[in-house]
Design brief:
Number of helices: 7
Helix content: 40-55%
Strand order of the largest sheet: 2-1-3-4
Distance between the termini: 35 Å
Radius of gyration: 22 Å
Structural class: alpha+beta
Order of helices and strands: EEHEEHHHHHH
Number of domains: 2
Largest sheet: 4 strands, antiparallel
Shape: elongated
C-alpha cells in the first residue's frame, strides 16, 4: 500500500511504507504531518500510520553548525528514533526579490555570479549535475564575444560585433546557458523528490525565461518552510 503526505495544503507522494519510515528517520517527514493511504480521503498524522513499526535509525551526521536539520520529533511515541540532522546543506538563502533587484542594478552581472552559486549548491547535493560546467562554458563564450568585439573595435572596426564568428559565440553562449539551466532544473527536481521529498515540480517555460530567479523563488520558499518546520519544535 502506498501513502500520500500533506503539508502546507500541498499533497506529495505516493510513498511506500518503507519510504515513509526512511523519511521519518531522516527528518524529511514529520510524525505530525498528515498522511492518507491510496483510495482513502481521511487524513491522519503520520504517527498513526507508522504505529508501532520501528523506524530505522539514520546514519550519523556531521557536527552541528555544518549542516541544517530539524530538531527531534515533538511528542514522538516511545520506540521512535529522533529525526537525524540532514546531511544536505540548505539552498542559497538570498531572497528572490533581492536577487532580482541586484540583477537589475548590475545589468545582469550579479545574476551570472548567482548562477554559479546555485550550481555549486546543486553540485553538492547532486554530484552528477553538470550545470556548473555548462554555466562556465556559457560565460566563457560570452566573454570571448565581448572581449573579441572590444579588441577589434579598438583597432577601428566598430561593426565587428556583428561578424558571424562573434554572433556564433553569442548564440553558443545563450544555448549553453539554457542547457545549464535545464540541467540544474532536473537536478533540483531529482533532489527534492528523492533525498528531500517535498514533491517539487519546476515549470519549463519559467525555467527558459527566468531560470536563476525562478529557482531562487523556490529556494526561498523551501528555506522558509524549513524554518517554520523547525520553529514548531522545542530546541
Amino acid at each position: 500500500m502506498n501513502y500520500f503526505i500533506k503539508r502546507d495544503d500541498k499533497e506529495y507522494g505516493p510513498y511506500s511504507l518503507a519510504d515513509l519510515q526512511k523519511y521519518v528517520a531522516s527528518g524529511n517527514v514529520l510524525l505530525t504531518d498528515l498522511c492518507r493511504s491510496e483510495g482513502l480521503t481521511d487524513w491522519v498524522p503520520v504517527s498513526q500510520v507508522i504505529g508501532n513499526i520501528p523506524v530505522p535509525a539514520a546514519a550519523p551526521q556531521p557536527a552541528a553548525g555544518t549542516v541544517y536539520g530539524a530538531p527531534a520529533a515533538y511528542g514522538a511515541p516511545a520506540g521512535y528514533a529522533a529525526p537525524a540532522v540532514s546531511q544536505y546543506p540548505p539552498p542559497p538563502s538570498l531572497h528572490w526579490g533581492i536577487l532580482i533587484l541586484l540583477g537589475v542594478l548590475t545589468c545582469g552581472i550579479f545574476g551570472w555570479v548567482w548562477a554559479f552559486i546555485q550550481a555549486a549548491w546543486v553540485k553538492k547535493v547532486q554530484p552528477e549535475s553538470k550545470a556548473l560546467l555548462y554555466y562556465g562554458i556559457a560565460v566563457g563564450l560570452f566573454v570571448l564575444t565581448i572581449g573579441g568585439a572590444f579588441m577589434v573595435g579598438v583597432q577601428g572596426q566598430p561593426g565587428a560585433a556583428r561578424e558571424p564568428v562573434f554572433l556564433l559565440f553569442r548564440l553558443g553562449g545563450g544555448i549553453m546557458w539554457l542547457v545549464a539551466a535545464f540541467n540544474m532544473r532536473s537536478s533540483i527536481e531529482d533532489h527534492f523528490n528523492s533525498a528531500e521529498p517535498i514533491g517539487l515540480s519546476l515549470n519549463g517555460v519559467m525555467t527558459f525565461f527566468f531560470s536563476i530567479y525562478y529557482f531562487q523563488y523556490h529556494f526561498t520558499r523551501i528555506n522558509e518552510m524549513k524554518q517554520r518546520q523547525m520553529a514548531g519544535y522545542p530546541r
